[in-house]
Design goal:
The protein is mostly helical and 469 residues long. The chain is built from 19 helices and six strands.
């Protein structure tokens, strides 16, 4: 067998032709795993020495060779050969070329099946941390923008119809809450990812005296998998990761949709920096929020990756199957889109202004204070359902007369309910309502200021911890 020939080719009469090699290769996309593959190989090599399966001299040569290969890849001088199929074989072939027999001993006690399962978990640990950092940056951008608008009132919407008045800060902080849930999903997943499958072999483990706990410890895993059959085929963590990315993109798309609508001439609630807009090739007046539209569009690509991955997994017999080679395409795709879109969203949010004068000029349109009026009646002893009907009648009366609720005469109110007194006007107008919220978590000034303080302290703590690591 030549050094260029794969060991498994001894079993087959014919070597794969060029069509077959190009069809089965994954090196074109899994080469991004090189440092994790080398990291896992070094840990495996050190374990082999401790167990007496290779000598200390062989270990030194292997580690030296692997580090040289990593340096070559990072310098851009390493030549990837598609005939090696994947990153594992590419690194191993280069190692054998450098070291000879010591390199041929590296694969003792492991399979490409447990090797790729380990590489993916090592990669995902780092990727989760990258996403957590970018989520934190986006949350901070929202908290800092919210801090500028704790006094200013805007409409909230249900069914895209005006609902109740809120301070702008509360609206912005709603996204901080959404992205915190995304962080929670990633942190939960991190615990399930941080288990080592290395040493599970192709499917059934090994008869050699390998020490799986040692390699797990060297790689920073919290423990080892307990069933080799499951360990090499488990891609639950890949599906969970892609779902977590899909939820991140869902929230980003929701943000994009809001800002696209709010930046339109019809609303004119927000002004997005020209840096993140484009104009038209034909219409010179246009300011198009293309970056936000692309975030909204890219969301579908991540959803597609989740769907493709789930379709792949649902048809897998036990244990490892070559189909799983394709999972990396979808996981990398989801991670790349989520990372890029989070970074862009943080930049957009940091450079967005709310047109408070424009919002204020029409804030009392749409009867935003109707619910507050109903609650005023409740405070006067009127059952809520009855109060609801009274206010509905008042709104209909206002629409006929072209008035706002605050413009109705006291006599008009008293004709609808004897419970109404002169203090009714304190519960009317959007500004009064926004100041009057008392329930925890409400969309008022006091609650928003409390949450801004909470979030800035929490996010600064997260940033400080990451900086120390």
């Amino acid at each position: 067998m030549t050094d260029k020939q794969k060991s498994w080719q001894n079993r087959l009469e014919n070597a794969p032709d060029e069509l077959s090699m190009n069809f089965v290769e994954s090196l074109s996309y899994d080469k991004r795993l090189y440092k994790y593959d080398i990291q896992g190989s070094i840990a495996h090599c050190e374990m082999l020495e401790q167990q007496g399966l290779i000598s200390s001299s062989e270990r030194e040569q292997i580690v030296k060779g692997l580090l040289e290969i990593q340096a070559e890849i990072e310098a851009g001088s390493f030549e990837f050969d598609v005939s090696q199929e994947d990153i594992h074989m590419a690194v191993e072939a280069a190692l054998i070329e450098k070291t000879g027999d010591p390199g041929r001993k590296l694969h003792t006690g492991r399979s490409r099946n447990d090797q790729i399962a380990t590489d993916m978990r090592l990669w995902m640990r780092d990727e989760i941390n990258r996403l957590l950092e970018k989520l934190c940056c986006l949350q901070m951008a929202f908290a800092e923008l919210a801090e500028k608008y704790t006094e200013d009132v805007m409409p909230s919407y249900t069914h895209l119809q005006r609902a109740q008045p809120i301070v702008i800060a509360a609206y912005l902080l709603s996204f901080v809450e959404q992205f915190e849930r995304d962080k929670g999903r990633l942190k939960d997943l991190a615990a399930r990812v941080n288990i080592s499958p290395l040493g599970s072999g192709a499917a059934a483990g090994s008869t050699l005296p390998i020490d799986r706990n040692l390699t797990a410890e060297k790689l920073g895993f919290a423990g080892i998998t307990q069933n080799s059959i499951d360990a090499v085929s488990d891609r639950d963590f890949c599906a969970e990761f892609t779902f977590a990315c899909s939820m991140i993109m869902t929230h980003l798309s929701k943000l994009a949709e809001d800002f696209i609508i709010f930046s339109s001439t019809e609303f004119s609630f927000v002004k997005i920096s020209d840096t993140y807009c484009t104009s038209s090739s034909m219409m010179p007046q246009k300011r198009n929020p293309d970056m936000l539209e692309l975030i909204r569009g890219k969301t579908g690509n991540v959803f597609g990756s989740l769907s493709a991955l789930m379709m792949m997994l649902k048809a897998q017999p036990s244990t490892y199957n070559r189909d799983l080679q394709e999972e990396k395409i979808h996981i990398f795709n989801a991670a790349d889109y989520a990372n890029n879109c989070l970074e862009m969203a943080a930049a957009i949010v940091s450079n967005t202004q709310f047109r408070t004068d424009k919002i204020a000029s029409g804030i009392d349109e749409g009867f935003l204070d109707a619910t507050s009026l109903a609650e005023y009646l409740v405070k006067k002893g009127v059952p809520f359902r009855q109060a609801h009907g009274i206010v509905g009648t008042a709104v209909a009366l206002c629409e006929k007369r072209g008035l706002k609720l605050s413009e109705l005469e006291l006599e008009d109110f008293r004709n609808l309910s004897e419970a109404v007194e002169e203090d009714v006007y304190e519960s009317l107008t959007a500004a009064n309502v926004a100041r009057a919220y008392t329930s925890p978590g409400a969309a008022g000034k006091t609650q928003s200021e409390q949450r801004i303080k909470y979030w800035k302290e929490k996010l600064n703590t997260f940033s400080s911890v990451k900086g120390e690591e």
